[in-house]
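Hello again,

I reread your note about wanting to compare the complex against the isolated chains. To keep things tidy I'm splitting this into two emails, and this first one only covers the full assembly. Below are the input lines as submitted, including protein chains and any nucleic acid or small-molecule components. They are followed by the predicted structure of everything together. The single-chain runs will come separately.
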Amino acid sequence: MSTLTTPSPRAVDLRARRLPGYAPIGIAAAALALAAAAVYGGGIGGPVLVVVLGAVLYLAGLYAASNAVEGRRAARNRTWSALIHSAFVLAVLPLASVVWTLVSKGAERLDGNFFGTSMNNIGARDPNGGAYHAIVGTLEQVGIATLITVPLGILCAIYVVEYGRGRFAFAIRFFVDVMTGIPSIVSGLFVLAFWVLIVSPVFNDGRPGFSGFAAALALSVLMLPTIVRSTEEMLRLVPAPLREGAYALGVPKWKTILRVVLPTALPGIVTGVMLAIARAAGETAPVLLVAGGGAAINLNPFENNQSSLALFVYQQAGDASRYAPARAWTAALTLVALVLILTVAAKLLARRNQLSR
Amino acid sequence: MAKRIEATNVTAYYGAFKAIENINMTVEPKTVTALIGPSGCGKSTFLRSINRMHEVLPGARVEGSLTIDGQDVYDRDVDVTAVRRMIGMVFQRPNPFPTMSIFENVVAGLRLNGVKKKSVLTDAAEKALRAANLWDEVKDRLGKPGAGLSGGQQQRLCIARTIAVEPQVVLMDEPCSALDPISTLAIEELMFQLKDQYTIIIVTHNMQQASRVSDRTAFFSIEKTGDPGRLIEYDNTQKIFTNPSVKKTEDYITGRFG
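Full-complex prediction:
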């Protein structure tokens, strides 16, 4: 009976001393004031340094005040939550900055002319010119690449997760992992060597030719591993009891996959596909290598040069014309907006299949 | 409609591990048979062998013969999906399909097996939900997701889904272990009603439940961990629980081991 001690009769107070609600705000104001005085008084910097120094002073002051009033544990809790919030702000800052830069600089050429014309016959002194040809190119190339990779990638992931056994499935997974790391320029070179120089002459009276389709092939090489990997992860997340439930109803395996497993994993698969599309839409090098770029509108993806938005940005940003940078900014804004619209649309479509609670 | 099941020398493996060995038992039509025994003794493995769900796991296989009214379900020419349609199964944890509504869940078995006619599906859904004592609770929200129901309702939904394909045997793998006493009662009452039409085999850890619902009881056990599970005693439930003929069964029933 020695190890079991009776609780001490001393009353335990559950309440503890707390910093008043206005204390953090007060400390923040004091920290900023102190930082401003130090920075401007010493003449060592501007507002950015004030904020940074203020944040550091705030963290130190908060810890000290909380430690004095509330104790060590509460002080660490407060400091860590403040650090986590600062990390969030730090992560969002570059994103907000990018969006702001794109919108403010891209707004200048955000007009009907930009979306309705190409760069054909636009000289260095011509303020007009647009990205119609590049938008067409991006949509066609990414569209074809999506048509190729989505069925292929999803079927490949289904094979690896549901059917693949032993070495062959392992080899596929390994090479998909390796493919994930292929630099885009390498995939461009591969398609240049294989498609443009060897296969395309067959269709083209013996002359090799650039085409938007070649660019789509190069983008497919980049998109495929992303789609396979993300789909694979999503299929693995579908609980085994769901499959067993369907099997126990006498549903064949292929139908179980098609009607139970895939719908359950659909939102995740869509996200993976959209990531792949976003990556492909932003690629410049493969398009430059195998579609060649071009100033004129070319609606046919199977013949002649085509441009793309990313390539357009690259070319305009390096152009000597004083009107080119504005075109580059607007094209960049268009590219981001395009990917955003596609992502939102795909998410909405995927959600329509889900039931609302 | 209900069928007699005969197991002869059924032995099941997970890869190299032998989980059950030489199980011989006959299950009469329109009865409830309870499988009891300590954890790991192979009750669930035997249950899953009956509708060929055992082989779903990689490396798992079954030897011996298992016949339903004289037809061996492990015959080479047998279509496994036909076996599973004839022998339905309810799992330990309710597993409604999350992307489907209550209605779609109930008719999933029919729909995925090719029934398209709306009127057939509607009738089948109502019949199955009534049989599963769930109709009154869900009839106004058939379009809502099945995953939004309570645990007990979900399990009854899964039972409705199972009987909607009109099987002749229903296997239940600890169907009440995740449920509260009231939902358990609802499912036990359901078993009494289903007994008129179906042969039911239920795995349970709850001996009161076994004695309440079953006509016959089979006691499985293992010598020690790693040994295959064996059928120790199989008799009328009343006999097993009042006057078992094997000492080991008595020890288990009275709580002296397991």
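For quick reference: Chain A touches chain B through 26 residues (CB under 8 Å).

B.
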